[in-house]
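INFO  loader      accepted 1 record
INFO  loader      residues=337
INFO  predictor   begin
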Amino acid sequence: MSGDTPTLSVQDLETHFFTRQGVAKAVDNVSFDVGKGEIMGLVGESGSGKSVTGFSIIGLVDPPGEVVGGKVMFNGSDLVGLPEEQMQQLRGNRIAMIFQDPMMTLNPVLRIDTQMIETLVTHDKSISKDEARQRSRDALGQVGIPSPDERLKAYPHQFSGGMRQRVAIAIALLNKPDLIIADEPTTALDVTIQGQILFEAQKLCRETGTALIWITHDLAVVAGLADKICVMYAGRIVEQGAIDDVLDHAVHPYTVGLLGSVPGHNTRGHRLYQIPGMTPSLLNLPKGCAFQARCPKADGTCEAEPGIDEPVPGRQVRCFHPQMEAAATGGQEGTPS
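INFO  predictor   done
INFO  writer      dumping tokens
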């Protein structure tokens, strides 16, 4: 991480959803830092709290959800509780979010050039419309959209789903923000275009110092993209550290199980490993460790709530039984049984 103050420092963030069935702790005591030019992968199963973490950072959690605790320090200033008018000045300018559904970014009744030029001019009054149009054209080219001059004149309904997503990504890159939060933005794209966008994202971070949080369930994507990784389960980060350290020497049983479920980690001719059981409901989490019912190492100790430990420098894990032999021997001990 470069510099003394990280671009983003999330500290003990808590976001709860208040429903008729009870309180769902979608984000529970989550902490991490992302430095200037750094890329962090936020991974986990559906319902683990990844997307809600992103929405909480950018102030887009609506009732019945509410950020009830913690801090979101952006360039040294806390965003939690910031007036909506000030948040709107940051969104799309210094902080950008790429949504999984591109229509959360695009206005269906406005041409693409209108939306992209407006994004630039709104946050930079000194830019001319001709310059804004050229930058918009270049941004479409960056994400692999052919004939960008023609595409600028089109409406969102004239694009395929994958093309609309590329436009949404281009809009996020326009102002070269300090922070981008990307919520599974390449899921609908083919691997060639996905590779091009990942390359452009890395290039942007290196050249401009943009910090990037890439939210995904795909470990293969973050393996080639991120500098560090946070693994979420049931609203909490259970393991975090440098990307190579975590993927090569996972220590939390859940991370070990995730990696064991990747086809390339399984022996040819053997049944594909899967973590037993289902993710618990956030409305009815078990006492103690949320992963205990699915964990091969669980015992009576896991009835208590595990704290955050740092078993080796730079690695944080929330577990009473971390698989430290994997890190000590320079590899994982195999698929959990």
